Every structure is written in structure tokens, then in C-alpha cells.
From TrEMBL:
It comes from the Bacteria. The lineage of its organism: Bacteria, Bacillati, Actinomycetota, Actinomycetes, Bifidobacteriales. PANTHER family: BIS(5'-NUCLEOSYL)-TETRAPHOSPHATASE [ASYMMETRICAL], DIADENOSINE 5,5-P1,P4-TETRAPHOSPHATE PYROPHOSPHOHYDROLASE MUTT. Belongs to the Nudix hydrolase family. Residues 17-179 form the Nudix hydrolase domain. Signal peptide: none annotated. This is NUDIX hydrolase. Pfam families: His_Phos_1, NUDIX.
Length: 362
């Protein structure tokens, strides 16, 4: 590496939050949507960690390991530093500052010609111990950080967090978190649309289209995608009954011990014949996700995804979000997913965040 070439250290983390114990919402999370954003914020507490090396209070975060996505690193590092198993929620922001400013209170240098640290942040919520056990094989093990790295954690109100946080960039991230909560993110539920992994070509396959399997390369991508989907704790798995869709979620189903629900209306043939019925079947899954407060992953085909995107763009809270749901084929690559964070409003479901989810295959 050239002496003049700057180094960028990639990292990831998040703001882990929960409803305060004893609060009305903690007793009945379903009523959160009925509360104002101010009431929600007053019922929220966030997790801050102390690093003895720098004697600072900051958000849990850490460097990416080799062959690891920012998403996976965020979940792993949060688990290591807090001891809390979490699922990712809406995305917050990215922060970049010179490595020389690590541990300093102010990190507003604009010098990007020096070695820098680049960190992505998500909202994140604790999951149950039972859910964490279900995810172990798909996500991988998480080991607690050494006491020399993190020697204390505290759960505090948003107001207290502003006072305790050491760094200006962490306070900026907290401000974005508050904006997200005011947008409805504290009540958002996640629905993952998965496009099946690479399948055998139609021309070479001698069987029926419904029985056309994924290729070995597709199987590798599907396996790698499991690690990324596990970051969101999908507890409901649904799929087109055609083989290539089933095979894409099959290992995740086996690893997490979550069964797959078959939705006949989401096959290619069913969609081509009755696109409205397919949309209504998909809309039902959105409604179930909001009602059960469980993350749902649904595996579908390219043309079906395009048809669903046509409807979903109209549900986006902002025009910029709708542009992330591509209008032209192939809509999204094989073996990838998009995470839709949806809130329930008097006007119906509204999408407030969209994240593209791609596996790292190596």
C-alpha cells in the first residue's frame, strides 16, 4: 500500500432501545401506535457502553471482520458489547471521522485525506432468549467483549443519553434516532421480500417450471443470505410453493426451526393469471406482520416482485423511498432481499424505511 494512500476502517453499530420497564407501553406494546411521538420518546430507554481505553460513553459498535457485512457486524458487535441479543430495525446514518479523533469529544474534522473510521448505525431492539437460540445456527456465535474493551453499560432515557454521551457524533446520531421515532419507527414492523436464488435455466431444465431447482451457486448465495436475514430475526417464513423459492429459504427454515408457509397466489403462473389476487395475498402478509408484530420473510419470483413493487411504491412515506423499489426488470438480483419497515396508519400501511440486503459469498 502506498504511504500516501489513506486507510478506511469499516465499522458498524446501533442504538439499542427498549420500552422502559413498568411503563404503560412496556406492559402492552400494541398500544405504542396510539401514543404521540413525545409519549413514545418518554417511554424509551437506550443502551450506552463505557470504553475504559478512552474513558468514554458511546453507542455499541465495532470493526467488521473479514468477509462480514456492516449489517452482520452491527448485530454481532452490539451483542458482544452489551450482552443483549438484538434484531436490526430502521437504518439511522453513517458517521466518518479521522482515526486520530477516536476517543475525542469533538469529531467534526472535515479532513478526509487521513486515515478514517467509517461506521454505519441502525436502530436495534432486544429479542427474547428463545428467539436468540433459534438464530444461533443461522447467525453464528456471539461472545462477550473483554472487560478491558467494555467495562460498563447503562440503560438511560433519551434525555439522559444526551448528557452522558461523550462524543459529538454520537449525539448527532441520537438526534437522528429521535427523528426516526417521530416518524413512527418505534412501531414499525419488518417484512423481508426475498428473490429466490439463481435457478437452473429454463432452456436446459427438462422438468416443469414449478420444479426447477436452484443451482449450486444459487445454493451458496442462499446459504450466505441466511446470515443477513438472521440479523432481522424473521420468525415467520412464507414462500411461493415452487421449488426454487422453497430451496432458497429451506436451510434458514431448518437452522431456525421455523416452518415455511406456502402461498399459492404468489407463483409465477398464479400472478400472471390473477395479479390482483396475488397482491391481496401479499397485502394479507403485511397485515399479519403488523398484527402479530413478527418479522416476516417472503420468497417470490422476479415478475411477482415487480408486480408487488408497483403497489408498494404507493405505500412509501417519501418519494425517495419509492425510487428504491426499482420499476424495471429484474427489480432485484437473485438471492437478495429488501427489508421494508412498515407502520400502521389510519390511511393504511406506510413504508418508512427500505434496506437492500445482499449476501457476501466467498
Amino acid at each position: 500500500m502506498s504511504e500516501n494512500m489513506r486507510r478506511v476502517v469499516e465499522a458498524a453499530g446501533g442504538i439499542v432501545w427498549r420500552w422502559k420497564a413498568g411503563s404503560e407501553i412496556a406492559e402492552n406494546p400494541a398500544i405504542a401506535a396510539q401514543k404521540s411521538p413525545k409519549e413514545q420518546l418518554n417511554s424509551i430507554e437506550v443502551c450506552i457502553v463505557h470504553r475504559p481505553k478512552y474513558d468514554d460513553w458511546s453507542w455499541p459498535k465495532g470493526k467488521l471482520e473479514q468477509g462480514e457485512s456492516h449489517r452482520h457486524a452491527a448485530v454481532r458487535e452490539i451483542g458482544e458489547e452489551t450482552g443483549v441479543s438484538i434484531a436490526l430495525g430502521p437504518y439511522l446514518c453513517e458517521v466518518e471521522y479521522p482515526l486520530s479523533e477516536e476517543g475525542k469529544k469533538t469529531r467534526h474534522s472535515r479532513d478526509r485525506a487521513v486515515d478514517t473510521k467509517h461506521t454505519l448505525y441502525w436502530m436495534a431492539q432486544p429479542i427474547s432468549g428463545d428467539d436468540a437460540e433459534h438464530l444461533l445456527d443461522a447467525f453464528g456465535p456471539v461472545h462477550r467483549a473483554d472487560v478491558g474493551e467494555i467495562n460498563d453499560i447503562v440503560w438511560v432515557s433519551v434525555r439522559e443519553a444526551r448528557k452522558i454521551l461523550t462524543h459529538s457524533t454520537d449525539k448527532d446520531t441520537l438526534a437522528i434516532f429521535v427523528d426516526r421515532v417521530q416518524e413512527g419507527a418505534a412501531t414499525a414492523q419488518n417484512l423481508l421480500i426475498v428473490r429466490h436464488a439463481k435457478a437452473e435455466s429454463r432452456k436446459s431444465w427438462k422438468g416443469t417450471d414449478a420444479n426447477r431447482p436452484i443451482t449450486p451457486k444459487g445454493a451458496a448465495a442462499a446459504f450466505a443470505l441466511n446470515r443477513e436475514l438472521a440479523c432481522y430475526n424473521p420468525t415467520r417464513l412464507a414462500t411461493s410453493p415452487w421449488l426454487r423459492c422453497q430451496e432458497t429459504l429451506q436451510v434458514l427454515s431448518w437452522q431456525t426451526e421455523r416452518s415455511m408457509e406456502h402461498i399459492d397466489a404468489l407463483t409465477e403462473d398464479a400472478f400472471a393469471e390473477h395479479p390482483t389476487i396475488a397482491w391481496l395475498a401479499f397485502l394479507k402478509q403485511i397485515q399479519l406482520t403488523l398484527e402479530t408484530r413478527e418479522t416476516t420473510a417472503i420468497c417470490m419470483h422476479r415478475p411477482v416482485i415487480g408486480g408487488m413493487f408497483d403497489h408498494l411504491r404507493g405505500l412509501c412515506a417519501r418519494k425517495a423511498l419509492s425510487k428504491q423499489l426499482i420499476a424495471k426488470t429484474p427489480f432485484m438480483p437473485t438471492g437478495t432481499a429488501v427489508a421494508l419497515f412498515i407502520i400502521d396508519t389510519p390511511q393504511g400501511p406506510s413504508i418508512i424505511d427500505i434496506q437492500k440486503v445482499s449476501p457476501i459469498v466467498y
